[in-house]
Design goal:
2 strands; globular; PPR_rpt; 510 residues
Length: 510
């Protein structure tokens, strides 16, 4: 607040305190932030000659979360006297004030006011009313509003779970909780708190353990996508040390995490630790996909055969993993077999299946076949499909087709920097320098900027992020010294006059 007051003094001195953008920010910080001061915000508001509805709402919101929520009501009445029409944001803040005051009589009056102004079908307003009625002990009115909502979100569901829990009706709270399409920390906490308040501590702990399992699945998913193997291992140790039940969902997440992080043996250990009759198609997919991602083609296909022997029915994801394995292993005929199997077993081919098949053919040099698949698909080619074909064109020096595909990619994603650079590189390799330069100019005219590529490296359980030519890392001096040392150890003999992969973006950036 002292810093805000200094800035405010400068704004007044420069004569721009009436500017709405400045006034709104000053009001918002002082009224709503945890380190703010609602009374200061109120004084600033009084200095405005023509306050907007946003400014009025900010003060109402500030008082609704203050020690004196009654001020929100009096300020709302004053706003109406000035002829300011409330909007869909005004009433939720008022409802929050009434919820804190637990005044059902006033709550009913604000609901009546909302009905007159036509905002009662606004979902934001409806959620606030549900919370207000539940906090005032009128769970029946809250449930009526909830049941009549055409579209609910997590806030709607959470308000009902919390309302029933606070009223001591844990049976209904649990019913609502189990029906929720998505649960968040508020949902879990409300139910746990409800069980604690009625003295059912055993059930509270059971819900907490269940929450831990759900959270652990999400954390392992994050580790998998970041390649944070050590963090994933720590989560596995945490599960074991705390005696958390190894549900099939959690075991599947562990297999997926280890596989995506490159620890195939550890993934296989977890997979084999699951009883055969308990494995579902998801955990089989995670292991088959793990083998495929890291080029263990034979192991991937062998595991699929084992899966079939045990009578587990594959799904679309299974075949996607198998196609990926075929791409890495160069198995074109096997890929065609799996691709056709989707039709045979009554499954629908998704764009991902076509992309994988194009990748298989592209890697094998059967580029015309791959291009034919793209032209005969029942859907428009996606960027991933065209990208797979472009990669094949690069590998097999089919620059004529690479140009066609590159242009299609630009049409598909005109604001993607990589598409222009890709086509520019095609022209550069073909020594068509004028066209390569033109692509760069087109990119600049459209205002498309080249996004820097980044990489993640996990060292000592810490995830480090690097960008090309980046020197922001605290150990950048040591890192560059080591890179220079490594570069000197590598002996490269390249004839730059005949080098095929002389990429234009590398040449340009020197």
């Amino acid at each position: 607040m002292p810093e805000l007051k200094q800035i405010h003094a400068l704004i007044i001195a420069f004569g721009i305190s009436e500017d709405d953008s400045f006034a709104s920010r000053i009001l918002s910080f002082s009224a709503v932030s945890d380190s703010g001061d609602i009374e200061y915000s109120y004084k600033v508001f009084r200095q405005l000659s023509n306050p907007t509805i946003f400014n009025w709402n900010t003060i109402i919101r500030g008082y609704s979360r203050s020690r004196n929520p009654n001020r929100s009501i009096s300020f709302f009445i004053e706003m109406q006297r000035f002829g300011i029409t409330p909007d869909h944001l005004t009433f939720p803040f008022l409802a929050k004030a009434f919820a804190r005051l637990s005044s059902l009589r006033i709550a009913v009056s604000v609901h009546s006011c909302i009905s007159k102004t036509g905002f009662e079908f606004d979902r934001f307003v409806q959620n606030s009313l549900i919370h207000m009625y539940a906090s005032c002990g009128d769970i029946g009115s809250a449930r009526k509003l909830f049941d009549e909502m055409p579209q609910r979100n997590s806030v709607s569901w959470n308000a009902m779970v919390d309302g029933y829990a606070k009223c001591g009706d844990l049976i209904t709270a649990r019913e609502i909780f189990e029906l929720m399409p998505e649960k968040d920390v508020i949902s879990w906490s409300s139910l746990i708190d409800g069980y604690v308040k009625i003295g059912n501590h055993r059930e509270a702990l059971a819900i907490f353990e269940r929450m831990q399992l759900v959270t652990m699945v999400s954390v392992l998913c994050a580790c998998a996508h970041l390649g944070a193997l050590e963090q994933g291992r720590k989560m596995h140790v945490y599960v074991n040390n705390n005696g958390l039940p190894l549900s099939l969902a959690l075991q599947t997440s562990l297999v997926d995490m280890y596989a995506k992080c490159g620890a195939i043996e550890e993934a296989l250990t977890v997979f084999r630790g699951v009883k055969v009759n308990q494995r579902d198609v998801l955990i089989w997919n995670a292991m088959i996909g793990g083998f495929a991602t890291h080029g263990w083609t034979k192991e991937s296909l062998k595991l699929f055969s084992e899966m079939q022997t045990l009578g587990v029915t594959p799904d679309e994801i299974t075949y996607l993993c198998l196609l990926s394995a075929c791409a890495h292993g160069g198995l074109v005929e096997e890929a065609w077999h799996f691709f056709k199997s989707l039709d045979i077993h009554g499954m629908t081919r998704k764009s991902e299946h076509y992309a994988c098949m194009v990748d298989v053919l592209g890697r094998a040099g059967r580029l015309d076949e791959a291009f034919q698949i793209l032209n005969q698909m029942p859907m428009e080619p996606t960027a991933s499909m065209l990208g797979a074909l472009l990669s094949g064109c690069w590998t097999h020096k089919r620059l004529d087709l690479a140009e066609v595909v590159g242009r299609k990619l630009i049409e598909l994603e005109p604001d993607h920097d990589g598409r222009y650079i890709g086509l520019s590189n095609v022209y550069a390799v073909a020594r068509r320098w004028d066209e390569a330069r033109t692509m760069r100019e087109v990119m600049e005219k459209r205002g498309v900027k080249k996004s820097p590529g980044c990489s993640f490296v996990e060292v000592g359980e810490t995830l480090h992020r690097f960008i090309a030519h980046d020197k922001a890392h605290p150990q950048s001096i040591q890192i560059y010294l080591m890179l220079d040392y490594m570069a000197k150890q590598i002996k490269v003999d390249v004839d730059y006059q005949t080098q095929d992969h002389c990429f234009y973006d590398i040449v340009e950036n020197g």
